[in-house]
């Protein structure tokens, strides 16, 4: 993908885990509403659902390698149970997202909640601790503009020109299934 200097040119994919959907749907809504706030166009966002956080990395890497996106948001919610299964899913999700970014060269942003219980997750999905999905989208907007400017323009302080180009436009949900 070429570089972008304003958010209306930004193309993103959001990979969302269906597991703990009550949480991940709220994180997705937070991400989409933040994209809307920063003028990312609805048509430029593809949402891809996967069964659980364990599968996020595979999808993110495939999307990254498609060369269609400036950034891939990875959203999931892993909630601790009685066994060590939690650690396996969390570690696999984290290394999968990291590998997806390294192998595709596209920023893959880690928006997977890793919580001890459902209360912690609800608090971070629009509750008293904010909406981590929304923060994930913010990372994509700012991170991508920064990365694009850093690699493609000289002098690098052009980055500071890019950031204020943030306006508001309507953005609903746009869904694609793998
Ligand atoms: N326990 C959680 C899972 N488990 C499901 C796995 O992610 C995976 O889909 C399954 O093992 C099939 O490969 N996923 C979450 O996202 N959150 C959990 O708490
Ligand atoms: C991710 C988890 O820990 C959970 O879904 C699995 O629960 P358990 O460890 O009780 O089998």
From TrEMBL:
<dbReference type="InterPro" id="IPR002180">
    <property type="entry name" value="LS/RS"/>
</dbReference>
<dbReference type="InterPro" id="IPR034964">
    <property type="entry name" value="LS"/>
</dbReference>
<dbReference type="GO" id="GO:0000906">
    <property type="term" value="F:6,7-dimethyl-8-ribityllumazine synthase activity"/>
</dbReference>
<dbReference type="GO" id="GO:0009349">
    <property type="term" value="C:riboflavin synthase complex"/>
</dbReference>
<comment type="pathway">
    <text>Cofactor biosynthesis; riboflavin biosynthesis; riboflavin from 2-hydroxy-3-oxobutyl phosphate and 5-amino-6-(D-ribitylamino)uracil: step 1/2.</text>
</comment>
<dbReference type="InterPro" id="IPR036467">
    <property type="entry name" value="LS/RS_sf"/>
</dbReference>
<keyword id="KW-0808">Transferase</keyword>
<dbReference type="Pfam" id="PF00885">
    <property type="entry name" value="DMRL_synthase"/>
</dbReference>
<comment type="function">
    <text>Catalyzes the formation of 6,7-dimethyl-8-ribityllumazine by condensation of 5-amino-6-(D-ribitylamino)uracil with 3,4-dihydroxy-2-butanone 4-phosphate. This is the penultimate step in the biosynthesis of riboflavin.</text>
</comment>
<comment type="similarity">
    <text>Belongs to the DMRL synthase family.</text>
</comment>
<keyword id="KW-0686">Riboflavin biosynthesis</keyword>
<protein>
    <recommendedName>
        <fullName>6,7-dimethyl-8-ribityllumazine synthase</fullName>
        <ecNumber>2.5.1.78</ecNumber>
    </recommendedName>
</protein>
<dbReference type="GO" id="GO:0009231">
    <property type="term" value="P:riboflavin biosynthetic process"/>
</dbReference>
């Amino acid at each position: 993908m070429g570089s972008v200097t304003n958010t209306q040119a930004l193309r993103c994919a959001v990979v969302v885990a269906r597991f703990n959907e009550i949480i991940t749907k709220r994180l997705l809504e937070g991400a989409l509403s933040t994209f809307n706030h920063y003028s990312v166009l609805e048509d430029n966002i593809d949402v891809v659902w996967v069964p659980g956080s364990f599968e996020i990395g595979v999808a993110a890497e495939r999307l990254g390698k498609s060369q269609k996106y400036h950034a891939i948001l990875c959203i999931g919610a892993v909630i601790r149970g009685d066994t060590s299964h939690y650690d396996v899913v969390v570690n696999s999700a984290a290394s999968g997202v990291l590998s997806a970014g390294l192998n595709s060269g596209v920023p893959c942003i880690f928006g997977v909640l890793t919580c001890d219980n459902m209360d912690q997750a609800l608090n971070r999905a629009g509750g008293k601790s904010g909406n981590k999905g929304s923060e994930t989208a913010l990372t994509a907007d700012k991170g991508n503009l920064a990365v694009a400017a850093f690699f493609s323009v000289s002098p690098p302080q052009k980055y500071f020109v890019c950031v204020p180009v943030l306006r508001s436009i309507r953005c609903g949900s746009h869904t694609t299934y793998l």
